[in-house]
Amino acid sequence: MFARSTFRAAQPLRMHARRFATETGPSAAQTAKPAAAAAPKTAATPPPPPPSPSGGGGNATTYVLGAAVLGGGAYYYSTLSGGAKGSAASKQPAQAAFTGGDQGFLSLKLAEVVDVNHNTKRFRFELPEKNQVPGLPIASAVLTKFKGEGDEKATLRPYTPINDENEPGYVELLVKQYPGGPMSTHIHNLQPGQTLDIKGPLPKYAWAENKHDHIGLIAGGTGITPMFQLARGIFQNANDKTKVTVVFGNVSKEDILLKKELEELENTYPQRFRAFYVLDKAPKDWQGNTGFITKDLLKTVLPEPKSENIKIFVCGPPGLMKAISGNKVSPKDQGELSGALQELGYSKDQVYKF
């Protein structure tokens, strides 16, 4: 998809894109509000399928899960309890299905499959208990395992679930089938009632509310999944005022994954969320950018490198990673920054590669 490392020029953007990119969001200190303030609007979360990272899969053989226990038991549902003196929020703990550490793999039953396009499907797997939530902190992924008949070693691939963390009972993966891809092919061949071994969480970038004033999310293909997890987590938190800019590249219009969910965020939070789509093979009526994600496009829409407290996240196929930021060396080693972001003046500390 992004095998070419040279990106073609994109269409010019309106000036308000640059204004959005340069208007710095409020810092954590500025977002503090008195308790009596009106409750801010919370994000409308995507409904369970049928509708609608890994972050795309990648070669993953070893992951450290020790820090994952931070997610276990840290999830709560808030319910309102009435009374003569008014209602107050009471917290009930929700059990986490994935606790990391020595837990090992869970064999989860496939409950439902939804076709997204010609090569991508959504797979909903049931958690061991109906009242459990996945227990995945932002940002984190899960590890899938499959050993085919006659295989010497098991195939391992990470995926970022796309379902709402607060919805109990299931975990949902968005999987694109790659030609010759052993894990994606295996998952696409699964039928409801069959099982898949899944382990987690795999901690990625530890997020905290208002950790950055403005973040840029550059994705290609299924690399949108960790970006969506991060963006949705931000907007589900009424105290988090981070601004978010997404730059999402795909081959064709049909390949734009989670577009409905991204548009919902943009319509709900037009002052804080913007998404820019780039198509290699665009239809005649396409109003977005065409070609590939270019340095000029990134310069126009992303927060400037001189801005304080910003972060740029990148996830996608190797060709995109090489052209935009350089590939990471391993799950533990981000590698050196190169490509368009380095040329635009961003520092290694300002960029995170999923």
TrEMBL record:
Coiled coil: none annotated. It catalyses: 2 Fe(III)-[cytochrome b5] + NADH = 2 Fe(II)-[cytochrome b5] + NAD(+) + H(+). It is a single-pass membrane protein. Residues 25-44 have a biased composition (Low complexity). It is an enzyme of class 1 (oxidoreductase). InterPro entries: CBR-like, Cbr1-like_FAD-bd_dom, FAD-bd_FR_type, Flavoprot_Pyr_Nucl_cyt_Rdtase, FNR_nucleotide-bd, OxRdtase_FAD/NAD-bd, Riboflavin_synthase-like_b-brl. It is found in: Mitochondrion outer membrane. GO terms for cellular component: mitochondrial outer membrane. The keyword Mitochondrion applies. GO terms for biological process: ergosterol biosynthetic process. Its cofactor is FAD. Its EC number is 1.6.2.2. Residues 103-208 form the FAD-binding FR-type domain. FAD binds at R157, P158, Y159, L174, K176, M183, S184, T225. Residues 21-58 are annotated as: Disordered. Its main location: mitochondrion. One of its GO terms (molecular function) is cytochrome-b5 reductase activity, acting on NADH. Keywords: FAD, Flavoprotein, Membrane, Mitochondrion, Mitochondrion outer membrane, NAD, Oxidoreductase, Transmembrane, Transmembrane helix. Belongs to the flavoprotein pyridine nucleotide cytochrome reductase family. May mediate the reduction of outer membrane cytochrome b5. This is NADH-cytochrome b5 reductase.
